[in-house]
Amino acid sequence: MVSSIAPATVIRGVVRDGDQPLSGARVRIRGSADFILTDRQGRFTIAPPSASNPVILAAWKDGYFIGGEEWRGKPLTIDLRKLPERDNPGYVWVDPSPDPAGIHNCGNCHEEIYEEWRSSGHAHAAVNRRFVNLYDGTDWAGRPGHGWSLLDEHPHGAGVCAACHAPTVDFSHPASDDLRAIDGVAAHGVHCDFCHKVRDVELSHVGLTHGRFGMSLLRPHQGQLFFGPLDDVTRDEDIYSPLQSESHYCAACHEGVVFGVHVYSTYSEWLESPAAREGRSCQSCHMTPTGRMTNIAPGAGGVERDSATLASHTFLPGGRESMLRRCLKVEVEERSEQGVT
Questions:
Q1: Is the Cβ–Cβ distance between 81 and 234 less than 8 Å?
Q2: Are 71 and 65 in contact (CB under 8 A)?
Q3: pLDDT of 219-267, one tens digit each?
Q4: How far apart are CA 229 and CA 281, in angstroms?
Q5: What is the number of other CB atoms lying within 10 angstroms of the CB of residue 156?
Q6: What whole-number distance in Å separates Cα of residue 146 and Cα of residue 296?
Q7: Model's pTM, two decimal places?
Q8: What is the DSSP string of 54-104?
Q9: Hey, how many other C-beta atoms are within 10 angstroms of the C-beta on 111?
């Protein structure tokens, strides 16, 4: 028997905060390429997909978690939940390593992203041997007294390194003043949970305020929350963050004057570069999609996406040599001058 009910031509709905309609909220079908904005009454109209799979609508507005509802052929109401107002300094950081006993361990659901990150410099920022050699004057084999030492030159300022290289070390932990004592989750360096708790980066003192001290974090007092570059992750604990695709997200750690020496100038170099003039961010090169990943959490609620929209977390796609080759363009011009053979 053929149904006499005509298929819906549009999906209608409203986005609100309690009884308050939210205008300017972004609405999209999960995994789709396009979004629309709600009107002054919080209303939206969007075309349904041709596929017959369950249709999930996602909505987000600044200051709120992403919300979502499954469309079942009737008008939708998507209620958004406000973000907490205050950061929680007592928050316990999530270990990125896979562990079935861990509720939020990043590698449990995001295995491919975890493996990319694990091979990166960020994952080894606190224990990288080149860094440690400069920190305490050891050589490659760990023998002391074989080179310049930050601990010898500036013993009272040794803790400045932790701000970027181990940003989740507790201020009461010995490693806050001597990174050689690093252990636990903080030993993972710049890890997933830290990067996805960054709400904002302060640019007025960039280069003078380092790492975590130049960032505004938002850590929950209960439950969980993650800032990310996708606006349709509807787990009720995710927040869309355009900042994560912008260069100044990187500035707090990649620009620094340390003890009067301009040690890191990556961000200021980018500001003066052709890439900045062309509107290309740091992430557009350092997190270029590999084209291999199509689902960030297969089997754990993730949806299939265009592989070109999913960033790589190796931070040197193709390897260091490949990145260096791509970053430099050389032109050779041959000419002869009078009297020169």
A1: no
A2: no
A3: 999 999 999 999 999 999 999 999 999 999 999 999 999 888 898 899 9
A4: 14
A5: 7
A6: 44
A7: 0.89
A8: -EEEEEE-TTB--EEEEE-SS-EEEE--BPPSS--TTPPPPP-S--TT-SS
A9: 16
